[in-house]
Design brief:
Blueprint lengths: L8 E7 L4 H14 L1 E9 L11 E3 L4 E4 L3 E3 L6 E3 L1 H10 L2 H9 L8 E3 L1 H7 L4
Parallel strand pairs: 1-2, 2-3, 2-4
Antiparallel strand pairs: 4-7, 5-6
């Protein structure tokens, strides 16, 4: 297939995540662009891209999940955000939800999806 006929791709090499609402908006825009290729870390809110049918992961990809939290100001306290947890979990494919549950659910300790588990649960590029 000629290179010019390949759909455009967004490549994630290292993304620690951030505010869930920003990632949700970006995910919708990126789906209109083409494929989402994960080559490295996709952590926290970045994992919302797992809901995209256009996402694929290379062998070096790693997804990191943890419970959502809010921070008030740059130096303010971090407080749990159960509403964001519920939002994130509902958007993950069922196989990802089951994986998170099998690891004890979302807590402050990150859960990593990589290697053999990732190859089973996330489409390969």
């Amino acid at each position: 297939m000629p290179l010019s006929t390949h759909p455009p791709a967004i490549v994630i090499k290292y993304d620690e995540g951030g505010e869930v609402s920003k990632y949700a908006r970006r995910e919708r825009a990126w789906e209109a662009e083409g494929r989402i290729i994960v080559r490295g870390l996709c952590g926290s809110a970045c994992t919302i891209y797992l809901k995209s049918p256009y996402l694929c992961a290379e062998p070096t990809a790693q997804f990191a999940f943890h419970a959502s939290h809010l921070q008030y100001g740059k130096l303010g306290p971090m407080v749990p955000d159960p509403e964001s947890n519920t939002y994130m979990l509902q958007w993950y494919p069922s196989r990802i939800q089951e994986f998170i549950a099998s690891q004890g659910g979302l807590t402050t300790t990150p859960i990593f999806l990589e290697g053999r588990w990732m190859q089973r649960l996330v489409p390969a590029c």
